[in-house]
């Protein structure tokens, strides 16, 4: 299991390293100042994007357009280039981007449910553009940056701009639904999760186009929990040096992973002994069956 706290931040970091050398070489070929002993990669400029807040219990469902939350890689199309949230260019094939319009789009590069690992690995490859897996990638568009009107109007404009469907690879507009109440919302959420999806996104139908984290866009994801047995202690680093860094745990079906997030200072100073059972929370499973974003919740006493 990838024990880094945020795979998307790690993906952005890895891509920044991959682009550093080509960037420096390009500067030299243009005759610009390039000191190999002091060369530093050019910092990418992140695009300004709308980011979601978690949905709360008091939610007027009928005022939102609702779509499935896609477990892919966020991608901004500038009209000329695909960019990650960090601003790092995505090495997409020319025939993939040739299908896109010359105006800005915001969406998700997606291979399908439970295939985030494959999508992120594709983006990280040095020769990503040559990979035949791009034929399966869909660019699921959910926003039209800087377009006039509210979100419902922008969604109609997106459908006119990209009339394709999600049944084929390439660009398409994410389908939006209007739901009447929380009960209907929870039913659809349960269906999406049962089918291997990640959750739902709720976009206020009357929302203007804004950027940054905002209540105009909400995300609804379940938090699952399960039990595992402690089988070891991993030493801490940094501010946790000299005490517990993470618990090594094993699930009832024999899968092992490190559980570090969610532990209090007191639990790190006096951790549960090997053989004890703990309850952890997580958000779905990876392709290998390990829990995603697992966090320690509490001790669990088996009956």
UniProtKB/TrEMBL annotation:
Family annotation (PROSITE patterns): DNA_LIGASE_A3, TAT
Organism: Leptothrix cholodnii (strain ATCC 51168 / LMG 8142 / SP-6) (Leptothrix discophora (strain SP-6))
PANTHER family: DNA LIGASE, DNA LIGASE B
Keywords: DNA damage, DNA repair, DNA replication, Ligase
A Pfam family annotated for this UniProt entry: DNA_ligase_A_M
High-level lineage: Bacteria, Pseudomonadati, Pseudomonadota, Betaproteobacteria, Burkholderiales
Cross-referenced SUPFAM superfamilies: DNA ligase/mRNA capping enzyme, catalytic domain, Nucleic acid-binding proteins
Cofactor(s), names only, from the UniProt record: a divalent metal cation
UniProt GO MF annotations: ATP binding; DNA ligase (ATP) activity
InterPro entries referenced in this protein's UniProt entry, alphabetically: DNA_ligase_ATP-dep_cent (IPR012310), DNA_ligase_OB (IPR029319), NA-bd_OB-fold (IPR012340), NAD_dep_DNA_ligaseB (IPR050326), TAT_signal (IPR006311)
Start and end residues of each ATP-dependent DNA ligase family profile domain: 151-253
Catalytic reactions of this protein: ATP + (deoxyribonucleotide)n-3'-hydroxyl + 5'-phospho-(deoxyribonucleotide)m = (deoxyribonucleotide)n+m + AMP + diphosphate
BP GO annotations: DNA recombination; DNA repair; DNA replication
Name recorded for this polypeptide: ATP dependent DNA ligase
